[in-house]
Structures are given as C-alpha cells and as structure tokens.
Amino acid sequence: MRKKIIVLTGAGMSQESGISTFRDADGLWEGHDVHEVASPDGWRNNPSLVLDFYNQRRRQLKVVQPNAGHLALHRLEVAYDVQIITQNVDNLHERAGSSNILHLHGELTKVRSTGNPKTVLEWHEDLNTGDQCREGFQLRPHIVWFGEDVPNYDAARRMCQQGDIFLIIGTSMQVYPAAGLIHFAPKQSQIYYVDPKPHISWELSLRPALEILEGKAGEMLPSLVDKLLNL
Ligand code: OAD
Predict the structure, then answer these.
(1) Residues taking part in catalysis
(2) Alpha-carbon distances, residue 114 vs 93, 104, 130, 131, 229 (angstroms)
(3) Does the Cβ of 8 fall within 6 Å of ligand 1?
(4) What are 57-81's pLDDT values in tens digits?
(5) Domain with 86 in it
(6) For 194-207, how does the pLDDT look when each residue is reduced to its tens digit (9 = 90+)?
(7) Which residues contact 172 (CB under 8 A, 6 or more apart)?
(8) C-alpha 82: how far from chain center
(9) Which of 13, 17, 22, 102 to mutate for ligand 1's pocket (most ligand atoms within 8 Å of CB)?
(10) What is the pLDDT of residue 27?
(11) Which of 50, 79, 140, 182 is least enclosed by beta carbons within 10 angstroms?
C-alpha cells in the first residue's frame, strides 16, 4: 500500500508567489489590521471594507502563479497518497495540479450566503454590497474569520491520524486549532518542517522524528521531494 503523506501548509507556502504572509509585517496584513478585515466584528462594522479587501485578494490571485514548492508537492503523487491540508485561501495548490486539498480557513474563489451557510457559490469576480443569494441574503466571502468555527477541522484531524509522513510548510504554528493538528500525527511518524524562521512549539519539540529544513519552500521542497521519491 502507498504511504500517506500529510502536507500542512500556511502563508509561507505562497510567499514566493507574491502573496504576503500574516505575521511577517508587524501584525498588518496588506496594510490592514487583521481584525478589521477578517472577523465577524469587522464585517458588522464595515462590510464594504471587508468586501473590498477580499476583492483585492481575488484580483491578486489572477496574476500570481504557483511556485516551485507547489509544483514539487504535486510530484509526490507519483509515489505517495498525498493529502494537503492548507490554511491558505488561495488556489495555488489546485493550480499546481495537487489532487487532494482540504482548505481549513476557506477559499477566496467561493462565497456563501449570510442567511444560509450551506449555500456556497463559486465566485471569481468582485463581490459587492447588494450581491445576494437566490433567497435574498447578502453574500459574504467563504473565509473562516477569527472567532469563527473551523468546519473542516474534524476531517483534518482524522486525516492526520492516518499519516505516515508529515510536511509542515510555511506556517508560524500560532493559530489554533490549525496549529494543534500535528498533535494527531502518529507518534513515530516522520515530520519535516520547512520554514526560514521555524517556530518549534513544545509539542513539536517532543516528536522523536522531526527534521527542520530552515529555508524557503520554493528552494527546499524540490530536493526534499526528490529525497522522498528516492526512499
Ligand atoms: P503566518 O504569517 O503566521 O506565518 C507564515 C510563516 O511562513 C512564518 O513562519 C514565516 O517564517 C514563513 N515563511 C515566510 N516566507 C516563507 C517561504 N518563502 N517559504 C516557507 N516559509 C515561509 O501564517 P500562517 O501560519 O499561515 O487565518 O497563519 C495562520 C493563519 O493566521 C492564517 O491562515 C490566517 C492568519 O491570520 C485566517 O485568515 C483565519
């Protein structure tokens, strides 16, 4: 049976594609206080600002490309059963060809009804005040904001319990519950953590098989993938 690789990615994965990370810029995200643009309070206080912010992110998505790291992860599928669990809301893993991607924090290319959370629509253009679902409710970005539940967390937890090898890439491991997922990796599983400034939590420091690769995803992943394919 093919081994299962679980890949946990964060904002650093897309940094070399030109998308800013969250914590590398003094708590500002593309010039905004994260809570103004990514929280239910922000949405209540100033929905136009929030819509505009995600419209800019959606437009940016059209001009950025997957980087060497995204492309390397796709190559793993030749020999492994690969499951990506990403905190990113971009679609660069999809565009690099990866097959199994679970988005923990939502997707920029989807919107949902504020009246019926089950109504989720594909959306590639700007979203404006007045854009409504069929039932007449305002549409909002399909993003998990601070303070909201993470509906895909249980699925992600179950995936982690089945993993043989883990790749943690470009995440500061500071936002829970995503950062806690590694807790569910089987004890003896091999873990690789790729990040130019890795944050070794107490949980990670206890892992018997942890290898830290200090560097950028696009620079480190092609050779790590070669190594895994040659095992
Ligand atoms: P962070 O901004 O907290 O962390 C980004 C990580 O990427 C840092 O550890 C950097 O050192 C690393 N990094 C930077 N450039 C890199 C590169 N080229 N290659 C590899 N790593 C690189 O981002 P996340 O951990 O993803 O939540 O943040 C988690 C969540 O917090 C996000 O999903 C978002 C945010 O607020 C929501 O929007 C709900």
Answers:
(1) 105
(2) 27, 19, 12, 11, 45
(3) no
(4) 999 999 999 999 999 999 999 999 9
(5) 1-19+67-105+149-231
(6) 999 999 988 888 89
(7) 10, 22, 23, 195, 199
(8) 15
(9) 22
(10) 58
(11) 79
CATH number of the domain where residue 177 is located: 3.40.50.1220
Dist. CA 230 → ligand 1 center (Å): 29
Residues 115 and 206 grouped into a single domain: no
Closest of 182, 128, 190 to residue 159, by C-alpha: 182
Q: Given a cut of 80, is residue 35 above it in pLDDT?
A: yes
Ligand 1 closest atom vs CA 21: 2
pLDDT at 25: 67
- Residue 99 Cα, ligand 1 centroid: separation in angstroms? 22
Task: State the angle between helix axes of 68-75 and 217-229 in degrees (0 to 180), rounded to the nearest 10.
Answer: 10
Are residues 217 and 162 part of one domain?
A: yes
Are 211 and 126 within one domain? no
* 130 CA from centroid of ligand 1 (Å): 32
| Confidence (pLDDT) at 126 | 98
CATH number for position 126: 3.30.1600.10
Decide if pLDDT at 24 tops 80.
no
Q: Are residues 128 and 208 in the same domain?
A: no
pTM value is 0.96
